[in-house]
Amino acid sequence: MVIAFSPQSALGQLLLLRSIAIVLQLILVLISILLLDKSIPHQPVFTVIALESLFQLVSIVLYRRSREISERAMTLQLMADIVFLSVLLSFLGGASNAFVSLLLLPCIIAAVTVSIGYVLFVSASALLSYGYLYLAVTMPMHHHGMHMGEHLLGMFVNFVFMVVVTVGVVAILVKRIREREALLAKTREKQLQQEQLLALGSAAAQVTHQLATPIAHLNLLLEELREDFPEHPAVSEMYGPLSQCRIQLDSFREQTELLKLKRQEKAQSTQFVIAQLEELMTLQYPEQSLSIVEKTSSVEINGDPMLVPSLLNLIVNAAKANERADKYHIELTAYAEGERWYLLIKDEGKGIAQKKLDDLGKSIVESDTGFGMALLLTHATLERVNGELHLENLAEGGVLSTAVLPIVGVS
């Protein structure tokens, strides 16, 4: 029989502990019958152990293909342990039995494996079970012994105290451990993203360096063609794209130098940022109509050299989405609210598939139009300057991209 769950999982450890408990129960009962107390009711005790063993086999068969189980199923398993242990103890002295404190074990396991609601349910069940063993089983047996009754009452109060303190402490420790694990997972994810961005940056720098020489050579050839064929239409058409390549390369070199020097850039006004975005979009996508609405006066934001290219990526993506849908209008809305500046970019494209929308900007997402690298770089830049990026599909079609940046001053 193939079993999927491992001994390290919560399910595997629970079933392993129960198997050990069943074997120990059988051994202790046999020792008690043979050497200590021969008046123990044989048939009921062995019947309970047999039913518990059967339940254990059924659980293994049912969950053999599951690596983990739900919190509800784990709670049912723990409740079964409380029930079997309570019934067994009811034939072996009830609350006066030295092993009655084992009812605390399911509470501790619950505090480690399930949420607080289920922990409270299991703890309350253990307390009720102990109360039943104390009142219905133990007290009628010792109603003549005052000192024994006080002792058993003290044991019951001690058990309540142990459940409250132990479960409370374990639950708090587990919560802190889970918070730390979540923080470590987030840190690892961010580190992997930074390594990914570093690899992309290195590849971009290498490609840019390799393209610089061919583009310079093409510029020289273009100048010769302009001298020989000044009226040829192809020469004029080539001049625009090559000029854009040269401008982009110069801009990339300038940004690289700023990052290399690690200079602390001064704040830049949002009016200047929007003007740059408008100019760059006019050069790259002259056929797109860009309408800009500034609802509030200009403010100052971080002067990071990669900020404008990152915001430009959002507008370029909007332009590409418009081209695929044969649309030509992009709407930019900028305003300041509180201590944040908002830039909303609205296109008229066909939108983004919902299953990819949550991952865009956070990881590389393969699609028919690319891998989402531009959004990944934009998201990383905005995070570096304590900004945010939000993407959402619009009901009327298109995507609304919202860049949120902290305000560092007033223009």
Brief account:
With 411 residues, this protein is of the alpha+beta class. Helix content is 64%, strand content 10%. The strands form two sheets. Strands 2-4-5-7-6 form a five-stranded mixed β-sheet, with helices on one face. A three-stranded antiparallel β-sheet has the order 1-3-8.
Give an account of the 3D structure.
It is an enzyme of class 2 (transferase). Keywords: ATP-binding, Kinase, Membrane, Nucleotide-binding, Transferase, Transmembrane, Transmembrane helix. Its EC number is 2.7.13.3. The chain is an alpha+beta fold. The protein folds into 3 domains: 10-188, no CATH class; 194-261; 268-410, Histidine kinase-like ATPase, C-terminal domain (Heat Shock Protein 90, 2-Layer Sandwich). Helix content is 64%, strand content 10%. The protein has helices at residues 10-36, 42-62, 71-90, 104-113, 116-141, 146-228, 233-261, 270-284, 307-324, 354-357, 373-384; strands at 268-269, 289-294, 299-301, 329-337, 340-346, 388-393, 399-406, 409-410. Strands 2-4-5-7-6 form a 5-stranded mixed sheet, with helices on one face. Strands 1-3-8 form a 3-stranded antiparallel sheet. A hairpin with a 5-residue loop joins strand 6 and strand 7 (399-406). The radius of gyration is 36 Å and the shape is elongated. 23% of the residues are buried. The model has no long low-confidence stretch (mean pLDDT 81).
